[in-house]
Amino acid sequence: MKVAIITDQHFGARKNSKLFHDYFLKFYDNIFFPYLEENGITTIVDMGDTFDSRKGIDFSALSWAQKNYYDRLREMGVTVHTIVGNHTAYYKNTNNVNAVDLLLREYDNVTVYSEPSEAKLGNLNVVFIPWINDENQESTFKLIKNTSSICAMGHLELQGFRVNNAVVMEHGLESKLFEKFSKVYSGHYHTRSSIGSIYYLGNPYEMFWTDVNDTRGFHIFDTETLEHTPVNNPYKLFYNIYYEDTPHQTFDTREYVNKIVKVIVRKKTNTKNFEKFVDKLQSSGVADMKIVENYDFGGWYDKKIDETFESEDTLTILNRYIEEAEVSLDKSILKKTIQEVYQEACELV
Q1: Distances (CA, A) of 306 to 29, 69, 262, 275
Q2: Which residues pair with 68 in a beta bridge?
Q3: What pTM was computed for the model?
Q4: Helix, strand, coil share of the chain (percent; to 5)
Q5: Which CATH superfamily is 2-232 part of?
Q6: Handedness of CA 330, 331, 336, 338 (dihedral sign)
């Protein structure tokens, strides 16, 4: 049996941004749904963070998700197994109140897993593991210990895996807790990575600057062979544009319409020509543009430093500052606290 696995869809992201939802929809219309139909996929596992804000839902975001995703799946006769993630659990110490359970009750093809559970995918018995918190930690560990299943799918926070291209998670559970399973698949971190038999499959599309040039999409899982195959999303939203006295007359801006771009200035000998370049890019219809002037490293140029700088977002910069600070505190705990505060701030703004 072939099953589609998708995770961290974050419907309602960026305060229900039309720009982001239009970008998401291009993926669903042109990649996701056509693949399901062409390959006869009738089962989906959603590994968490289906909606973006754990505190509430914008009505238009819910309407968008229903019209463009859930209604279509129901009409296609697709069964959806949905795991509660940290963004869909209202409280931090329990999954009892969660967005997917409350918002998707009208869909009889959707089953929500707010507690650790075992379920069948074809002939394969799978352990579904939602966000682990104070209330369900004991029951989660007990199920993992006692199950005879060889496959687990969940929304896990494990040490040693990449959160994005710039950050590796230093806290969380240890991977050895899941060493009994032949395959473990997880959402939560948005970039793809794997260690041993544990796979973070990544989310379907770019959402932040740290996602630039990072491959996204969904996966097809074979319940007989336990193999997974990526189906990549070819569409980008974030672009780095390198200016090196680039002639504005011949620069093609068509690719950047309704995109978020960052102009990294590596060489600028004529200010007026640069301004014409920026004006052309701006008038082409970019959604947002930032300009980054290159640092002067005493007459030498380090491409590695430049690439690190240009990819950083706010959270990455904060983590780097903590790492470099001379403080007598556990920096991993401090980073986790900052991450939680930053996430809360993003949901409120």
Answers
A1: 36, 39, 13, 22
A2: none
A3: 0.87
A4: 35, 25, 40
A5: Metallo-dependent phosphatases (3.60.21.10)
A6: positive
Closest CA to 169 of 335, 3, 338: 335
What distance, in Å, lies between the first and last C-alpha atoms of the chain?
Answer: 43
Euclidean distance between CA atoms 323 and 286, whole angstroms: 35
- Do 260 and 239 contact (CB within 8 A), yes or no? yes
Q: Which residues pair with 120 in a beta bridge?
A: 125
> Residue ranges of the domains in the chain?
2-232, 238-311, 313-349
Residue among 158, 115, 118, 154 at smallest CA distance from 137: 115
d(Cα 100, Cα 89) in Å, to the nearest integer?
A: 9
In degrees, rounded to 5, the angle at the alpha carbon of residue 184 between the alpha carbons of residues 179 and 187 is 130
pLDDT (tens digit, 9 = 90+) per residue, 157-189? 999 999 988 888 988 999 999 999 999 999 999
Least Cα distance to 319 among 213, 210, 215 occurs for 210
**pLDDT tens, residue by residue, 46-84:** 999 999 998 899 999 999 999 999 999 999 999 999 999
DSSP H or E stretch at residue 244 = strand 238-244
* Residue with tokens 């002037």, as numbered in its chain: 293
